Amino acid sequence: MGIELIQQNHPKSQDAENVSRQQEGIAIAFPEEVERAQVALNSKEVPEPESFSTIDKTTLDIARRDLHHACELLFSNSSEASVNIDNHLQAERVLNGLELPIKNRVVIIGEPIARGGYGAVFNAEIVSRDGQREPCAIKFSRVYDRTMQYAYEDNTPQEDVYAQNARQLIREAAILREMTRCYSDSSAFPQYIDAQFVPNPDNTDLRVAVLVMENVEGMNLHDVIDHEMDLRKDPEAVYEISIEICNALQALHEAGFAHSDIKPSNICLRFSDGIVKVLDFGLASYLGGQKNDEDDAVVYKLNIDGLNGGTRGYQPSKDIEPSIQRDIYSIGRTMQAMLFGNMEIYTSNLMQDIVDKGGLSPELRELYEMTLRMTDENSEMRPSLAEVIEKVQELWQPIKDAKELEKQKRPSLGFIDIVE
Prior knowledge:
three-stranded antiparallel β-sheet
């Protein structure tokens, strides 16, 4: 069984990313964007990337106007729960087919994938200068005022919060760019393509942050669990998905980042090959708190004190700052969701009751015990990620050995094995 069987049994889902955001305060930008922002602080003129020199200014302005108009419609309500459907549909009509220049290429926007309170994701195609088209995803922030870009959120107007949200999207772009550069052979994360602050030609103080990245077509783990109720009957899939999540987070931590929002809906099983992808880096942050890397073109500012992002039920109540141990807690909760089904709040009594009634196979009981250690409210009691990986591999090995032995016992007709 395992991931391959899950692929066969589930229809395609476009709900690959949850783009809802909570406010957290790390400012991230690329040096060229920082330089342009600094110039713009003293001038109404916005320096354009060199690659725009061959694009007709009228065409460029029209595309940017349409983007800003659509984003105003998409986020016409401050609350995600109070979406104006008519405005949303109108925004989709404006964006569908829009050819948006992003630095040295054009992105043709398609159908929506997901929308949250602070960002929206659309299917798209990216067109290079030689006319080649490739599928991608494009993510937009709310419209924000660039003069508020570096304001703190405490006791500030709503516009300041929108600027913070735009900074989060550019921070996400910077982290994906870093992971794509450092782990180019890794498919555990969406691949970064491009990012930019897009000004409104009628008021260059107003911007939309845009991120162009790989479009991961697959089903998120939350939907897989809902479809299966849980994955207890497929220990192989549980171990395979668990180890891939852990390996991905280990690479992220080694690069100096914490994800801060690991949960089933941010884990995607790609349709094409079953690869597990970790999504949504909107709350990810630099573990050191601050980094200025001149060679790598990423600028980080300190977190805003007192802001604790993440999703209820998947974050510890006592860990405020982003950390490796906080991510380990979230991984443990995600593994428990595979064992017991999606629940908003997990209690040890509820899970133990299921275990005591024989609801968990012997192959998964030790894994469950490991998740209890991973989700201890005392961060010092949690195992390291290396320890978790070692234990998961140890528990998974007998299952793999049994599968290989069963395969060897199958009768064969010449060179053609009889398959299940």
